[in-house]
Amino acid sequence: MTRIVAGSVGGRTLRVPPQGTRPTSERTREAVFSRLAHYDVLDGARVLDLYAGSGALGIEAASRGAVRVTLVDSARRAADVARRNVADLGLGAVVSVVADDAGRYAAALAAAPGDPLDLVFLDPPYDLSEQALAGVLADLAAPGVLARDAVVVVERSTRSPEPAWPVGLEALARKDYGETAVHYAEPARPDGAD
Question: Which Pfam families does its entry note (predicted)?
Fold first, then answer.
């Protein structure tokens, strides 16, 4: 069972796809959102949750004050479960679900950015290649995709190397929770900018 930790729908439970996903533990989500509150990126945020699975990360962001959340997962079953979770929690005005490949979705954003994103979650399968992850990160770092003070959160196995941050993104921190490593990055600042 997966439960929303805090916010407007805190304590409510989420459905989880029967197979093919690795839900972020409640302990890890609580720690991630504590750090995000410290970074002050949740209230009023525009959020993208790639490899969303049940949508727990994006829904948690909506519960804590995000104003627009997009959940993206290529598995139709996972996208259907995420849609049911959004409907069950009454978050349809804030959260949308897209059944698409994360790499293709990120490439489309890079080509036509729209409103800049304040927060992006990437929780891909641990067997996703480092090269594929680097490609998605490069698209997210394209001009106009991220807001100036955005935060990118990447969840990987502790046995995986640090993500290959592209030009345009720089590491903020790494925290380990059991077998899970959570990496935080932000848009790179031009020399001399604060």
Answer: Cons_hypoth95
Pairing of strands 117-122, 46-50: parallel
Q: What is the pTM of this model?
A: 0.94
Residue-wise pLDDT for 16-42, tens only, equals 887 656 677 888 999 999 999 999 999
For domain 2-16+24-187, which CATH number applies: 3.40.50.720, 3.40.50.80, 2.160.10.10, 3.40.50.150? Answer: 3.40.50.150
Domain boundaries defined on the chain: 2-16+24-187
